[in-house]
DNA sequence: TACAGTGTACTACGACTCATAGTACAGTTA
DNA sequence: TAACTGTACTATGAGTCGTAGTACACTGTA
């Protein structure tokens, strides 16, 4: 289910957060779908349950999942509220990264193409398109 | 010259790398311009010289500055070589971040606008002028 | 009711990173 | 020579990361 790099400088729980976020955003994991339990996933990945739980807690704080004691952890419905604070953070990071990409020689057209390609795969807020 | 958050979870030297990279990309710091010396900047920011040097070393590895023993550290000329490896890394990060932004409700038009606005302020690779 | 599964909380430990402090060496410039 | 520059190294304290173990509260089912 996952590819984690144990010896990466990036903490395991952060890698987990990234991966899961990706699966949620691309709707591989759908709304209210149950995630593997902390202990199950820990066993699958041969990783300590505490590390998994740290990742789940972070995802819950960020609003991507919700957990119910005794039942399990589930994917949150996609952006019911705009969450402007979070959006602003992402936007600022985006500006940094876009600047760097352009500085390194990426053209505006290339960037436009990337965005258009992503538009299809990302399950956005409104979803006012008919698939 | 800088605003650093000492108590941030993000290391000081990484904040420094980000800030300086930003100044170089936006050409506030121009090609071959000399950066403050390790000790001077350390004194200005009331930070240990070792921390500054760590940031400078990182910037040198990433190709944004070059250092000459006994003389100082200077801004590298903008992307003479494409550096496809680095570009690929940035592109992958960009895809992640763009996906997240769109998931949070940012529209394609908004993204296009951000890019167009940046186009002016970023000193890109070719700059279609011949120096 | 029991029991197995779920999330959650806490302590303790070793390994690692980060920032500081101090010292030292090599090169450049006036 | 003197004052500046980058660079390298050791040592220390604070903090993070991952692991290990234990414990508690809740849910669903036999």
Automatic annotation (TrEMBL), chains A, B:
Residues 10-78 form the HTH gntR-type domain. It comes from the Bacteria. This is GntR family transcriptional regulator. Keywords: DNA-binding, Transcription, Transcription regulation. Gene3D superfamilies: Winged helix-like DNA-binding domain superfamily/Winged helix DNA-binding domain. It comes from Cytobacillus citreus. The keyword DNA-binding applies.
């Amino acid at each position: 289910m996952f590819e984690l790099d144990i010896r990466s400088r990036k903490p395991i729980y952060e890698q987990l957060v990234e991966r899961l976020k990706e699966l949620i955003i691309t709707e591989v994991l759908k709304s209210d779908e149950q995630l593997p339990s902390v202990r199950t996933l820990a066993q699958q990945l041969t990783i300590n349950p505490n590390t998994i739980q740290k990742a789940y807690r972070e995802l819950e704080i960020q609003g991507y999942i919700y957990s119910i004691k005794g039942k399990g952890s589930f994917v949150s419905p996609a952006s019911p509220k705009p969450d402007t604070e979070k959006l602003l953070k992402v936007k600022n990071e985006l500006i940094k990264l876009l600047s760097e990409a352009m500085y390194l020689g990426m053209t505006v057209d290339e960037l436009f193409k990337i965005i258009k390609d992503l538009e299809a795969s990302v399950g956005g807020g409104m979803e006012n398109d008919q698939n």
